[in-house]
Amino acid sequence: MDLTHLLDGQSAAIVVGGTLLGTVLRCGWQDSRAAVGAIGALLRPGFDADAMRADLAHEVALIRRDGVIRASPRKLRDREFDNATAALVRTRSLDGLVEQHEISRRARLRRATAAARTLAQGADLAPVFGLAGTLVALSQLKLEALVHGNFIGAIATSVLTTLYGLLLAHIVMAPLGRAVERASAREEEARAHVMTWLAQQVAPACPDRPRSPVSMPRAIGPADPDFGLDARFHAGLDAQVGPQEAA
Predict the structure, then answer these.
(1) Rounded Cα–Cα distance for residues 247 and 107 (Å)
(2) By percentage, how much of the chain surpasses pLDDT 70?
């Protein structure tokens, strides 16, 4: 089989260009940038829970020795944990630590949800533009070409655009969307474990106990990759809103 017969710049331009344009028009620039950022994050090392726990160990030792009131935390490599420890020192309670963690968690899930939704839209649109390429190719046929049987080129282009649409949807867009969801689930689970450990370590040094029991951070959903990102996001919102309404 000669694979060079499967390469056609015009067909690829119609399918890829149309899919990208349609996705941006549907989802907007903000969600499209979130998708690009999430794809780029897949190429970088993910959140390292062990390294983060080692980075926090020094802060924990200082807080347990000097107390949270006199603690002066240094800047951490992770901005979200840096904000969380700063909130702990500022509020002098676990409530501030957990609330800042929840704010950061919601922002992460919003970005991941937007990225996965955008890639899903791209997967839906790719076959549509494959069909559009087929129609464009057939529209270029002229009556003289039909009379003389010279329509092989148009048929080849129409077949390739359909193929490109299917490959772009099921080999590129959809797998990337699922990869973003799986990476988000792993990161949330790892961050929840570190935050739970941090809260347990600094709890004895907090002078004021929370008036209501503070629920320790936990992973939003099971580690099963089939657990949808949108479901995790709404489950997280329900878990956060529930205690507030009860209070």
Answers:
(1) 24
(2) 72
Distance CA 146, CA 152 (A): 10
Q: Residue 117's pLDDT band (boundaries 50, 70, 90)?
A: very high
Using left for φ > 0, alpha for ψ between -120 and 50, and beta otherwise, residue 26 falls in alpha
pLDDT at 225 over 50: no
Pair 121, 23: CB distance under 8 Å: yes
Residue 207 has pLDDT above 80, yes or no: no
Query: What single-letter DSSP state applies at residue 92?
Result: T
Helix (H, G, I), strand (E, B) or coil at 83: helix
Indicate whether 143 pLDDT > 80: no
Q: Which helix (H) or strand (E) holds 58?
A: helix 49-66
Containing H/E element for 203?
Answer: none
The answer to whether 239 and 231 are in contact (CB under 8 A) is no
pTM of the model: 0.72
Handedness of CA 219, 221, 226, 232 (dihedral sign): negative
